[in-house]
Design a protein that fits this description.
Elements (H helix, E strand, L loop, with lengths): L2 H11 L3 H6 L5 H16 L19 H4 L4 H10 L16 H6 L5 H7 L7 H15 L1 H11 L23 H10 L19 H15 L5 H32 L6 H8 L2
InterPro entries: LIPB1/2_SAM_3rd, Liprin, SAM, SAM/pointed_sf
Keywords: Coiled coil, Repeat
Organism: Neolamprologus brichardi
């Protein structure tokens, strides 16, 4: 694996909910979107070329292939099923194929709300539901139905916000270890349920075979210290270079001139 990809994988694997909140990402929808996007990359061994932005020969498209659709490709699908009028409403929404196929909370009701299809347009919503269910497959639809029947289920909307977790006060080392030990704190936990559809079998096997290798990329306190020392070294080097430029200017000045006067004259 190239170093740059290794570096990016390392950070993706260790994204916490609090990290997203610190980046002002507070939408429940966006958290789930990022979670499922990371899962898609895991299933495709972090190959960014797996993502599909443009339509191709997809007469018998599988749920695994749909999970690779970008937001732009989902909008193209809406146009292909005669919903072109509503397709632009998804631009920048965070809805992609992985969210549609892998996230149980994202159902046709959530999609209709994001598309701004009014509830009174029942035929239009039924049309959307028919094509949506045909697209994602029976296994994904069963998981969404199970989620829908959960007593705690709430409709996923664009305005729903993540509630920050309360953290007990203590040493940062203890807090960090607690976060690492609690897999649920990750945006996309290591033990997230893998899809059971047959089209995902190869990807799931590759992921499981490489899970041990990916877990070895666990960020250690020693690594953090090394990065911090390296960053401090860069800052010190930058400061030294600035000082070096100043002293070279001073040494280049004739003895009879005051360097500060030369600097003031240069601003005239």
């Amino acid at each position: 694996m190239p170093f740059l990809v290794f570096f990016q994988v390392k950070f993706l694997l260790h994204y916490f909910f609090e990290d997203l909140l610190s980046l002002k990402v507070g939408s429940v929808l966006h958290h789930l979107s990022i979670k499922r996007a990371i899962q898609v990359l895991r299933l495709n061994y972090y190959d960014p070329n797996c993502l599909r932005r443009r339509p191709s020969d997809e007469s018998n498209v599988t749920p695994a292939e749909i999970s690779q659709w970008t937001n732009h490709r989902v909008m193209e699908w809406l146009r292909s099923v005669d919903l072109a009028e509503y397709a632009p409403n998804l631009r920048g929404s965070g809805v992609h194929g992985g969210l549609m196929v892998l996230e149980p909370r994202f159902n046709v009701e959530a999609l209709a709300l994001l598309l701004n299809i009014p509830p009174n347009k029942t035929l239009l919503r039924r049309h959307l539901a028919t094509h949506f269910h045909l697209l994602i497959g029976s296994e994904a639809q069963r998981l969404k139905q199970d989620c829908l029947e959960n007593p705690d289920y709430t409709v996923l909307t664009a305005t729903a916000k993540v509630k920050p977790r309360r953290l007990s006060f203590g040493g940062f080392g203890t807090l960090r270890k607690k976060r690492q030990d609690d897999g649920e704190e990750y945006v996309c936990p290591m033990n997230v349920e893998m899809p059971k559809n047959s089209s995902f079998q190869t990807s799931t096997r590759i992921y499981e075979d490489n899970l041990e290798h990916l877990e070895q990329m666990e960020d250690s306190e020693g690594t953090v210290r090394q990065i911090g020392a390296f960053s401090e070294g860069i800052n010190n080097l930058t400061s030294m270079l600035k000082d070096d430029v100043f002293f070279r200017e001073v040494s280049a000045c004739p003895p009879e001139y005051d360097p500060s006067e030369m600097h003031n004259n240069s601003n005239i």
